[in-house]
Design brief:
The chain is α/β, with parallel strands linked by helices.
Length: 1133
């Protein structure tokens, strides 16, 4: 009898004998099932559990159904009460127990942090327990709204507040009547949705902190209501993140009544001004909608606030990201930047160097044309299938490679590469020159002025190019980076004096800095001319260069290419070159969203990026089955030889489909192609609409009519993500919406988004992609196997190939692009991870100071770091006198050690003794200041207490004067302890803000300067990490020294009379204008690490608002809340 173990061994042996990973995966799938099957098996019980409760809820009254929410909240509070009570007791102990030492407080704070984590774990436990019942409550609520025009419940105060603002709720005595029709984004909507079984699975996936991939039309917005309601029960705030403010406002108004019915508050941050009380209130709502940008910018603004009252965000608890792949993949490396003016920000060399680059580009174009002509002459027999000599083959291949590396986007070159055998010849020649680590490539590049590498998105200036742009009579090394190492070594060997050596070194460093900036400007101008095309990567509108999003096809207002590339394009297009700015605060979306306790997302296309989502965010992707089987006919790609043939075939296909009375959506990858197809259709007399970045104002109007019979819509990627095309009368019978893709996009997700517009919820439809060998994707990443196959088949002009192998090859090419893009993103994110680790340290210090909770611990740590630096520096240099001076200068204390004892003693023991001495000195000084200030505070409070809430107290260290705002009553009651706390808080905030801003400027300069390391055969990232570490340590130490020095020396100003001077006037509210007037922007990191600054975000043109508005109540009319008062005396105050 064969044992199970024997059988298992046999199976494994057979598996490992099989060749190829693909076959191995198939075998494993056979025995273990696919990941999707395993996920669904694990998740399917939620359907049965939810539906079992759902059937029981139908018997409940509306009030009883609402009472379920209160019961859930009570259960959560009871479950976490014991731990919450412990936390509160520990906080009270810190606040009231004066016998606690700094170390005791630090231990208690650590214990509080651990208990906070325990509370979060307990919340997750109880939410899992009530999940099925909570889902059932929302499903039953949805059913009641869908099946009833009105729902009557006992009115609460919240119902009355809503009724005062909206028509959808009315008050009749002690009853509230909810209508199932309300306004969402100005349009009237009637609720008609009830959750499908597969949507329950989607909701469960989101609650688990995973990504739910749901096909287009499967109701992701409705799915979101399940985990949003469940997690909002904990009262810690749920953020639902959208990609634009229209969706944020629409979804918040569309879904709000379902949540409000259960007493949950809903708001949208995009409806309110930054730093406003209304926005703070929006964050205090149970459920908060908003765009990814605004969530990130509010985080940055909060970390620039000078008062706790200015903060708007709570702790980051749970976020659900809609279109998660767009936000967490495409925009992951996009830094959100708050910036302000920088000295000489309008100084640049783009206009001065532009004529040189234009000359360079013109000469290279001339050479590229000559090289292509030579290649055509030598390789023409290859096209006809004739024999060709080895010499002509080598010379022709080399000329072809040079033409390609000179200008790969040359249309004549692209057309020639589509001829028989030519693409294969280029790859063969390129492979020869790239072997042995590009050993032969310098010979190929020798006559070129610069080399363009499309795959790595780079342009490199050659020696010949440098000679050309160096003007007559100029220094021959005008565009050559100096070798600092050898020049400094030469200076050291010279017999000059130390002063002269120092001056010469400074001149060398200055020369290096100037040339680095000049070469950087040249490279960015070259990239702008050689790699960026107008109406493809960007458009020029309103005399400004605006980026077109490669994923959505929409204009990205306020977005700029980074690292000076945008300024180079502005110079190229002869528009105003915007001034550079200085970064005040910055964070990438990747690092912002990683701060949440729990993160999940939903999209229609995440499977292709599942590895990246897991590597960066630890988000698992779960594919949710469709409610109805997809009947869309996804056809194999049609491959043509040239673009001209392809576009002709596209037009013929459109004519055929229009005659069948089917609506057609034509997807293009650029504004240029959409306009070309529009002209071709016009010549054929076919009515059509064009939707691209230039015509985005008509988007809603065009999309509304795109599903009508015979309608033709030509669109860029704008018609992909988030576009819902409703089919008109007779369209389903005719075959549904027809999708025509005119080119494969670099990303498979974009193609899938376009396909997903058809075949929604089981509707018929079709999708067909037309491809040519001249397309960018086919040129750059198509495999040699397919090229040779096409050459063997002898593809003639006008002929077409359609085969599954070709389609799969194209998808493999797309995968190569995605892997390449991931590599770029990953490297750029490594830069930001360094910045993020520094940001976390500084912002934690800042938060502790702002809230005043851990000030004692923070100051103790700062003093310790200063002591450590003083001791280590003195022992390293053996300078005891300097050590004693530093102690007095920074800590205002006398040296307690003898010289021998200091140099022979254990450094750690010396540091700790110094720390205790300095801390004791500071505590005594604080008591003294409080005693000096108290008589004056007492006098002000007793005589003018009713007049002032806060009082300004000037504090000085003998050099600077800081006006400290402190609450008068509390300062009087605790005998000026609050004044000391306010002083500590203000000093730390002032020093951190000033030094952090300076550190960000230095980091921006570092990031730009290290890019020159490639010329020295060094890795810029490694140098950046090393230098950034040194910079940050230096910046932290500077903050610590400035804070410690000020606090150790500070006192009340002493006028001639000898009594402390305190301004007896009310402290004004902190000015918010400084932050609100700063610029917010999102530079695009397509090219390189983030730029030094960014220009202001362009204000969007106001869109025409719908006529439908919520109720307007006259001031003297009765308030709709049912209170019986006039509106002006109730909700109209």
């Amino acid at each position: 009898m064969v044992t199970f173990l024997t059988l298992q061994r046999f199976i494994y042996k057979q598996i490992f004998k099989m060749a190829g990973a693909g076959l191995l995966n198939k075998v494993l799938k056979t025995f273990l099932g696919s990941k999707t099957d395993r996920d669904l098996k694990e998740l399917s019980p939620i359907i049965e559990e939810t539906n079992a409760v759902y059937t029981q809820l139908t018997s409940l009254s509306n009030d009883e159904l609402r009472a379920k929410t209160t019961a859930f909240k009570t259960k959560i509070k009871e479950y976490t009460k014991e731990t919450e009570d412990k936390i509160n007791a520990l906080k009270d102990k810190i606040e009231n127990d004066n016998s606690l030492s700094i170390h005791d407080k630090e231990n208690i704070y650590n214990e509080i942090d651990e208990l906070d984590k325990k509370v979060l774990e307990q919340i997750e436990e109880v939410l899992l327990e009530i999940q099925a019942e909570a889902f059932a409550v929302i499903k039953e609520t949805s059913r009641r709204f869908a099946e009833n025009k009105t729902i009557e419940v006992t009115a609460t105060q919240m119902d009355r507040n809503i009724a005062a603002e909206r028509d959808s709720v009315e008050i009749d005595g002690d009853k509230a009547i909810y209508h199932n029709t309300w306004l969402a984004a100005g349009a009237e909507v009637t609720w008609a949705m009830v959750h499908y079984d597969v949507q329950l699975i989607g909701g469960s996936v989101l609650h688990q902190g995973k990504v739910a991939e749901m096909q287009t039309g499967e109701g992701k917005t409705l799915v979101g209501t399940l985990p949003v309601y469940l997690n909002a029960l904990a009262g810690r705030g749920i953020h639902l993140v959208t990609v634009n403010n229209y969706l944020a406002k629409r979804d918040s108004e569309w879904m709000a009544p379902i949540f409000e019915f259960h007493g949950m508050t809903v708001d949208c941050i995009d409806k309110h001004e930054p730093n406003s009380p209304e926005r703070r209130q929006a964050y205090l709502a149970d459920i908060t909608y908003g765009t990814n940008n605004e969530f990130g910018f509010d985080y940055l603004r909060d970390n620039m606030a000078r008062s706790p009252e200015d903060l708007v965000q709570r702790k980051h608890h749970y976020a659900i990201v809609d279109e998660v792949d767009s936000v967490l993949i495409d925009d992951a490396r996009t830094p959100l930047i708050i910036s302000g003016p920088t000295p000489k920000g309008d100084k640049h060399e783009f206009h001065e160097l532009k004529p040189r680059v234009e000359k360079l580009v013109a000469e290279q174009k001339k050479f590229a044309t000559e090289a292509l002509t030579e290649a055509k002459k030598l390789l023409s027999p290859l096209i006809k299938g004739e024999k060709i000599s080895k010499e002509d083959q080598e010379k022709g291949g080399l000329a072809l490679l040079r033409a390609h590396r000179a200008f790969p986007k040359n249309k004549a070159l692209i057309k020639f590469l589509s001829e028989h055998g030519i693409k294969a010849m280029l790859q063969k020649t390129e492979n020869y020159h790239m072997q042995d680590q590009n050993k032969e490539m310098p010979k190929a590049d020798e006559p070129l002025l610069f080399v363009v590498d499309e795959k790595s998105n780079s342009v490199e200036l050659s020696e010949k190019g440098i000679d050309l742009i160096t003007g007559a009579g100029e220094d021959t090394k005008f565009f050559v980076m100096p070798d600092i190492g050898s020049e400094v070594a030469e200076i050291e060997k010279s017999t000059d004096s130390e002063t002269e050596k120092l001056a010469r070194k400074e001149r060398v460093i200055q020369d290096y800095s100037v040339k680095a900036e000049r070469i950087h400007t040249i490279n960015q101008l070259l990239k702008a001319y050689a790699m960026f095309e107008i109406d493809v990567e960007y458009v020029v509108m309103d005399n400004k260069v605006k980026i077109v999003d490669e994923q959505t096809g929409r204009i990205m207002d306020g977005r700029r290419y980074s690292d000076g590339l945008h300024q180079a394009i502005e110079a190229k297009e002869n528009v105003k070159v915007e001034a550079a700015t200085q970064t005040y605060a910055t964070v990438t979306l990747q690092n912002y969203f990683r701060m949440y306790h729990k993160l999940s997302g939903m999209t229609g296309t995440a499977e292709t990026e599942s590895q990246e989502l897991w590597d960066i965010y630890e988000l698992d992707v779960v594919i949710i089955p469709t409610n109805r089987p997809i009947t869309r006919d996804d056809r194999q790609d049609l491959v043509y030889k040239t673009k001209r043939e392809k576009y002709t075939a596209v037009i013929d296909e459109i004519v055929t489909l229009v005659n069948q009375k089917r609506p057609v959506l034509v997807g293009t990858t650029s504004v240029e192609i959409s306009e070309l197809l529009g002209r071709m259709l016009k010549m054929k007399g076919i009515n059509h609409n064009v939707l691209n970045a230039k015509l985005h104002q008509r988007e809603a109007e065009v999309v509304a009519g795109a599903g009508q019979a015979g309608a033709v819509t030509i669109a860029t990627n704008m018609a992909g993500r988030g576009t819902d095309i409703k089919l008109g009368e007779g369209v389903i019978e005719a075959g549904g919406l027809a999708i025509i893709g005119t080119e494969r996009h670099d990303s498979r997700r974009v193609d899938r988004q376009l396909r997903g517009r058809a075949g929604r919820q089981g509707d018929p439809g079709s999708s067909q992609f037309f491809v040519s060998l001249e397309d960018d994707l086919m040129r750059l990443f198509n495999s040699e196997r397919i090229i040779k196959l096409m050459d063997r088949m002898g593809l003639e002009e006008g002929e077409v190939i359609q085969h599954s192998m070709v389609t799969k090859s194209i998808e493999r090419a797309q995968k190569k692009v995605e892997e390449n893009n991931f590599g770029i993103r990953k490297r750029l994110l490594e830069y930001d991870d360094i910045m993020n680790s520094q940001r976390e340290v500084v912002y934690t210090k800042r938060r502790n100071a702002l809230h005043g909770e851990r000030l004692g611990v923070e100051i103790s740590n700062m003093i310790y770091d200063v002591c450590e630096d003083i001791v280590n520096d003195a022992q390293a240099h053996g300078d005891f006198d300097d050590y004693k001076i530093e102690l007095i200068r920074l800590l205002s204390i006398q040296n307690p050690f003898k010289e021998k004892e200091f140099f022979e003693g254990n450094p750690q023991e010396l540091i700790e003794e110094l720390h205790d001495l300095a801390l004791t000195h500071y505590q005594k000084k604080s008591v003294l200041i409080a005693q000096m200030a108290y008589p004056v505070i007492k006098d002000v409070y007793e005589n003018q207490g009713a007049q002032y809430e806060n009082i300004l107290v000037p504090i000085t260290d003998g050099h600077k004067v800081l006006n400290v705002s402190t609450p008068l009553e509390k300062t009087y009651q605790n005998e000026c302890k609050e004044l000391i706390k306010s002083t500590e808080k203000n000093v730390i905030l002032a020093m951190i803000d000033e030094d952090w801003k300076e550190h960000l400027r230095e980091m921006d300069e570092l990031k730009q300067s290290v890019q020159s390391a490639v010329y020295e055969q060094k890795d810029p990232l490694l140098i950046y990490k090393f230098e950034a570490f040194k910079l940050f340590n230096s910046s932290l130490l500077k903050i610590n020294k400035e804070v410690a020095s000020f606090l150790m020396k500070c006192s009340l100003p002493q006028p001639k009379e000898g009594s402390p001077e305190i301004e007896t006037k009310e402290a004004q509210a902190p000015q918010k204008s400084e932050i609100s007037n700063l610029q917010t922007s999102r530079p695009d990191n397509y090219a390189a690490p983030q730029q030094q600054g960014a220009t202001p975000q362009q204000a969007e043109k106001p869109k025409p608002q719908p006529i439908r508005v919520e109720k307007k109540v006259g001031r003297n009319e009765l308030c709709p809340c049912g209170s019986g008062k006039k509106f002006k005396q109730c909700h109209g105050k």
